[in-house]
Amino acid sequence: MTLATFFQHLLNALQWGSFYALIALGYSMVYGVLMLFNFTHGDIFMVGAYIGFFVSSGLVAFASLGIIALPNWLILVLTILLAMLLTSFVGMLVERVGYRPLRGAPRASAAITGLMIGIVLETGNLALLGARRRKFPILIETQSYQLGPVTVTNTKIMIVFLSLLLTLALHQFVRRTKWGMAMRAMAYDFVVVPLMGVPVNTIAALTFGLGSALAAAAGILFGVAYPILEPYMGILIGWKAFVAAILGGRGSILGAALAGFLLGFIEIFVAAIFPSTLRDVIAYSIILLILTFRPHGFFGEPYSAQLRL
Amino acid sequence: MEVQEKPAPPAEAIAEITFLAKVRYFGRAQYKSQLAPIPLLGWLCGTLLAVVIEQVVGYPLARALGLPGIPGLFGLRIMLAPLTPLFGVLSGDVPDLLSGLRMMPNEFVLIPSAVAYVFLVYVLPTLAVARLSASLANRVAKQLLDRFPLWVSLIVHLGLFYATMHLWGGISAYRVLILRYVLISVILTLSLNLVNGYMGEFSCSHPGFMALGAYGASILTVLLFVNDDVFGAPLLPPALGPFIFPLTLIAGGLLASVGALVVAIPSFRTRGDYLAIISLAFMFIVKSLIENLEIIGGPRGFMNQPKWANLPTVFGWMAICVWVIYNFTRSTIGKAMCAVRDDETAAGAMTVNTRRTKMVTFLFAAFWAGVAGGLFAHVIGYINPGTFGVYKLSEILAMVYLGGLNSIVGSIAGAAGLQLLMEVLRPLQLFKWIVIPVLLIVLMIRRPMGLIAFTEVNIKDLLQPRRP
Lengths: 309, 468
What we know:
The complex is a heterodimer. Chain A is mainly α. Helices cover 71% and strands 4% of the residues of chain A. In chain A, helix 1 (3-34) packs antiparallel against helix 7 (200-225). The termini of chain A are far apart. By secondary structure, chain B is mainly alpha-helical. The model of chain B has no long low-confidence stretch (mean pLDDT 85). Classes of the chains: A mainly alpha, B mainly alpha.
């Protein structure tokens, strides 16, 4: 592999990893704050992509009809914001309906509930919208630039930049705001926190809402990069991002993002070096090895140091 | 003086759940007087007579009632058939709505016929024979238990049960297929219940074990007994095949156990949550490995397995599996499993070898998942790696949690229940996959551990005669 192809692969890996990173953030937050595997999250990603599709299609239709004159980049920004908001409502609804009744139950039951809600979302999408795949409207004209031997497109830069921006924003939110402190407190000690006057239900809803918003952003960026949407797009990417979230360590925002990018790197580089059909085998074997030697993830605490409540 | 002990509470609870529909019509006092004295032997004789009646007069009776043929699954699909055009509309199939609506009255008329058929052929003979033969059955059951060892009584009951199944399935190939899938699912659910329920770990690797067992058994069978393009001429005479088949199944199961080492060894260093990831990674690895091995077909799948998994074979394996797992859970290591789930540190302090317990449980459960996979491969004679992915995982998890954790009866009920539910809801087409998850969500919210959780049924109590 020459240096040029290496940097090309690096750029592709950064883009591919940003989807994993954004979705893994949602998994990691919910796991950290509520000690819960939210297996619906991949399908929330799909819901976010579809909501983005409808919002942007609607705005593009309005613009073409002359009702509102909006430049395409503004439509994209509005789409992202609106879809993040709407999908966060969907996420909070899922939490209210599916997870809150199971607050005290064994975590495996909540995981099953999550799986089932995911199936309902997929089948509901298929039933309501039909089996025809939807095409995300092209809002950004792809322009390639040549940085030496490496081809860079503006969409790739935008995706990587936005995902890093959102990760840092989330990190600052969790570190510096009062809500973030409440989330970290709940991750630290779930039992005592309500005794100190922190509204547990609100924090749980906020966690789910934030995670879903990020997944929606990932969905729209995915739609920008790969414009074909289908109801089952969230399954595989969701499970892989789940692996990345746990690899990053419990309750660690930067760890989840790092692990998401790492998973992207592993997949792209393994496909580049080895025959690409062996991608999953080698990538997951590497992850298995990492987990064997560092079971608590990158930035997680060792089991003995965790408060198991 | 002989003291006749009461049936143990779990057995009574199971009996009550099972006979609830009939109890509603009778009332509790009458239930106590009429139905409670009937031992299991009586019920089995009743059901046997019911299916004999179906074999003899089933078809003429169905035609006389206006049905096109014998109802496939207790008439339940007929009862849901009128809803099919409605669900077609919701999926967007408007042109068929009119023709569907025109057909609806015809389909509604069939419902009372189906109900009448079920009542006349299944319910009435079972109840009548069971009730009338209650005292005789009680005497026979008592004699069986007193004069012979326990296993004789068990074999008699199993034989009657199998005869019922065989005759019921003899009506159509569809029924036999459903029965075989249900029994294979029972084995799968039991094996996952060992890991999830008794040992309390959340393991996502069972589709991987099933795949290893399926491919292992298939490769051996095809290598040894089938004239195949890839593997060449059979190495052993094909006539020997059905007798060596159990050995190939065991070989597949052992292959799955070896695969389980990959999950078990990292599991010592990790705790519950990370085991989920490791087992998930294992499942993806196995699926991807199989897809990359062109010699066994890769993504196209592996075929030409002889269809040796007929109903007696599958039933026999299921009976052995239930018996072995029943004994396993009541053995020392079974109690060690439960101790490790409840509090691993305390168990370790109380001389439980936690590492060995986890290892043995994983390998044992993987063995049975491999056997189930091998049987699954030989039902239709085709497997492909896509079957053993995330959907299979959701299905097995749903069966375990529907039935109940830490309970053998629960696993059997969950497996049979979900498989039958999936078949019965076929008229709903796509909405089957909304109704079933919603049912499971509601169930999880109401009873997070499953329907029949932490309930054990003593086999000896099941076979006891009931006090009149």
